[in-house]
Amino acid sequence: MRLNAADLTALIGLCREQIEQHCERLGRLDSAIGDGDHGANMRRGLEAVYRERDAISALPLPAALERIGLVLVMSIGGAAGPLYGTLLMELGRGLAVGEEEADFAAILAQAVAAVARRGRSGPGDKTLLDVLYPVQAEIAGHAAPLRIAECARNAAQATEMMLARRGRASYLGARSIGHEDPGASSCALLTRAICLYFKENAPS
């Protein structure tokens, strides 16, 4: 996984744009099964990362990912900040100790496992992990970027019929069924933004 400063700056901007465009929808999803602030929280987090984009992009990729994760932890409220932050920080740490041609799928698997431990959740609990697990599997299978993006979107949509077992949504019991998980939705949006960039711009 080789990204230069220009690639990372562009990706930060694209992720910010995706969350901005879908902020209201994420808020509506969260209003149905949570406290309604997921869109606003994600927008605040991505804006915070965007403000530091030049300094972040000047860092080596492992350090840049760790810094993004830390910014998200500090700026996103609720459960999303620690979960997204853990994912990015663990990715950075994994890349830092790996070889130059490190197996990104294996590093991602370790990062996803860290998110699961942090959230004390797993597959089928109606969380962003229900997107991260299938995305990691597609990456391990060397799927094309568009296939990964489609997988993420389908996985997020599949959470609609799941019973929430973690977080505020779990208090609703069966009433959580019929609503897409907002964390899974934001994860799919970010995954799509990244995948489209990789499709259109082979990172150097």
From TrEMBL:
Residues spanning the signal sequence: none
Coiled coil region boundaries: none
Keyword hit for Transferase: yes
E.C. number(s) listed in UniProt: 2.7.1.-
Keyword Cell membrane applies: no
Pfam family for this entry, one: Dak2
Name of the protein in its database record: Dihydroxyacetone kinase-like protein
NCBIfam families, A to Z: dha_L_ycgS (TIGR02365)
Domain DhaL: start-end pairs: 6-196
Organism from which the protein derives: Ancylobacter vacuolatus
SMART domains referenced in this protein's UniProt entry, alphabetically: Dak2
GO function term, MF aspect, one: transferase activity
Keywords in alphabetical order: Kinase, Transferase
InterPro entries registered for this protein in UniProt: DhaK_L_YcgS, DhaL_dom, DhaL_dom_sf, Dihydroxyacetone_Kinase
Top EC group: transferase
